[in-house]
């Protein structure tokens, strides 16, 4: 029963990575002495429940030989602990002299002046050398011209003789080097660099990955994973490989809490349904959770008016197939990416003998949708943040126009809208302008690669859309422009 649940977890759209927990120590109490902490961490390998972990690992992955959860001979020693590279770096309390910006600028200017002087000197010396080599003479009469012709002929002949001699010398040197490079049967071949660990084809390859959080640790992540990995090797004698590994041992250190597990995913699952990525492609796991907030019902029409690579409608069609999904973009390349991703998912569905997903892709303008009034049940989209794409100033005009158009197209009472953006000021101003038609509900904060973004949930009220009242957008409050941002036309 537990293994059926395992496969159901791996099929969830909200999961990026999955691992099986083998051991958890709630209060490990790391010492201030790094060697002592690393020694205790090595000894933890003995108490890990390898049997449970490897049993779950076998359900997902395979290996040509059976993998034992215990070694044939349990080693007495698991190796001496080693210090991490962090011990050699300057600590916060060290008296490190820091240079001011003014001093650094002064040093740069002096360095540039010295480089210019050297360059000028080299130029003058090179010009002098050229003048000496040219042997310039003044010609005054016919005799001088004849003498000059004779000397020039002699110089040309001597140059040709020098070239012939040089070619002969080069040929001799090439022959000598060729003889040197030929393998001599009497001489022994050069010894190869010995491997630190022995390789056995009957044993799996493994690596240890450490994720560490918390303060006041006397070690770093590299030191923890190298010491723990050395102990695992001394315990099982598995092969060590950082890239081509069969088993990935996960070591999680959170302050004084330590967890050890085995990874059940080789790479992040957010890439499983996407093959064509754009400049700001949304993670499918975030799209899945946004769809969950919308509570999709059978027969509803779900629209992403700014679909990008089509991640949101694809996730919806996969996990809520009873709905009808529309995806649109103003950029042709984005529409092509969506179509490519839909075709890729349908190919995967055919391999699993499942029906194709149905996503209708259209090129349109989100501020002027080719849809009838009150025809869409759910609007869900990832709005441009104005950081990597667009700008905050553009959002101040774009956001109200998009929400105003959604107010026309969304069904009364049952309609919903879900937005993801990092431009909080822009979306709040837009929601205030269309507050006549919408009721604001849930707001969920998420961290997207260091950006503090939010998901906003809104519900359509019973107010009929009034086309006679045009949208009035107030003047944008000028903020610092983002130099790294791109226009929408730049990605076409």
UniProtKB/TrEMBL annotation:
The THUMP domain, residue ranges: 149-264
PROSITE patterns: THUMP
Keywords from the named record: Methyltransferase, RNA-binding, Signal, Transferase, tRNA processing
InterPro entries for the chain: RlmKL-like_Mtase (IPR000241), SAM-dependent_MTases_sf (IPR029063), THUMP_dom (IPR004114)
One Gene Ontology molecular-function label: RNA binding
Taxonomic superkingdom: Eukaryota
Places the protein is found: Cytoplasm
GO cellular component: cytoplasm; tRNA methyltransferase complex
PANTHER family the record matches: THUMP DOMAIN-CONTAINING, TRNA (GUANINE(6)-N2)-METHYLTRANSFERASE THUMP3
Disordered: region residues: 91-132, 151-203
Signal peptide: 1-17
Name of the featured protein: THUMP domain-containing protein
Composition bias type Basic and acidic residues, residue spans: 106-118, 151-171
Gene Ontology biological process terms, A to Z: tRNA methylation
Entries under SUPFAM superfamilies matching the protein: S-adenosyl-L-methionine-dependent methyltransferases, THUMP domain-like
């Amino acid at each position: 029963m537990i293994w059926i649940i395992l496969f159901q977890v791996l099929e969830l759209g909200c999961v990026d990575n999955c691992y099986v927990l083998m051991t958890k120590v709630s209060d490990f109490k790391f010492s201030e002495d790094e060697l002592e902490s690393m020694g205790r961490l090595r000894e933890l390998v003995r108490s890990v429940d390898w049997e449970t972990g490897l049993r779950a690992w076998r359900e997902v992955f395979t290996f040509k030989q059976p993998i034992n959860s215990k070694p044939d001979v349990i080693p007495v020693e698991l190796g001496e602990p080693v210090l991490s590279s962090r011990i050699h770096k300057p600590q916060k309390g060290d008296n490190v002299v820091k240079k001011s910006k003014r001093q650094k600028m002064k040093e740069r200017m002096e360095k540039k002046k010295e480089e210019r002087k050297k360059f000028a000197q080299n130029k003058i010396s090179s010009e002098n050398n050229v003048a000496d080599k040219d042997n310039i003479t003044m010609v005054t009469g016919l005799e001088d011209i004849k003498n000059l012709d004779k000397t020039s002929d002699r110089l040309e002949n001597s140059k040709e003789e020098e070239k012939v001699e040089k070619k002969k010398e080069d040929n001799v040197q090439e022959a000598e080097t060729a003889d040197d490079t030929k393998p001599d049967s009497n001489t022994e071949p050069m010894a190869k660099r010995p491997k630190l660990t022995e390789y056995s084809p009957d044993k799996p390859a493994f690596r240890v990955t450490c994720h560490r959080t918390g303060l006041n640790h006397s070690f770093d992540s590299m030191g923890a994973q190298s010491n723990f990995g050395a102990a695992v090797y001394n315990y099982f004698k598995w092969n060590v490989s950082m890239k081509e590994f069969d088993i990935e041992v996960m070591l999680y250190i959170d302050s004084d809490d330590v967890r050890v597990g085995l990874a059940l995913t080789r790479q992040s699952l957010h890439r499983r349904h996407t093959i064509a990525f754009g400049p700001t492609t949304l993670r499918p796991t975030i799209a899945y959770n946004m769809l969950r907030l919308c509570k999709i019902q059978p027969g509803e029409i779900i629209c992403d008016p700014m679909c990008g690579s089509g991640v949101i409608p694809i996730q919806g069609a996969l996990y809520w197939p009873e709905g009808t999904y529309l995806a649109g973009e103003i950029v042709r390349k984005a529409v092509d990416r969506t179509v490519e991703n839909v075709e890729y998912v349908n190919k995967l569905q055919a391999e699993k003998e499942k029906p194709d997903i149905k996503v209708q892709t259209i090129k349109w303008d989100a501020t002027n949708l080719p849809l009838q009034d009150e025809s869409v049940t759910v609007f869900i989209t990832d709005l441009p943040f104005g950081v990597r794409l667009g700008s905050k100033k553009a959002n101040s005009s774009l956001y109200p126009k998009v929400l105003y158009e959604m107010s026309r197209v969304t069904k009364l009472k049952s309609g919903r809208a879900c937005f993801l953006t990092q431009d909080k000021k822009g979306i709040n101003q837009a929601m205030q302008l269309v507050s006549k038609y919408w009721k604001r509900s849930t707001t969920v904060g998420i961290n997207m690669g260091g950006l503090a973004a939010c998901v906003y949930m809104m519900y359509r009220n019973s107010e009929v859309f009034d086309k006679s009242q045009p949208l009035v957008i107030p003047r944008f409050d000028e903020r610092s422009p983002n130099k790294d941002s791109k226009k929408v036309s730049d990605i076409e």
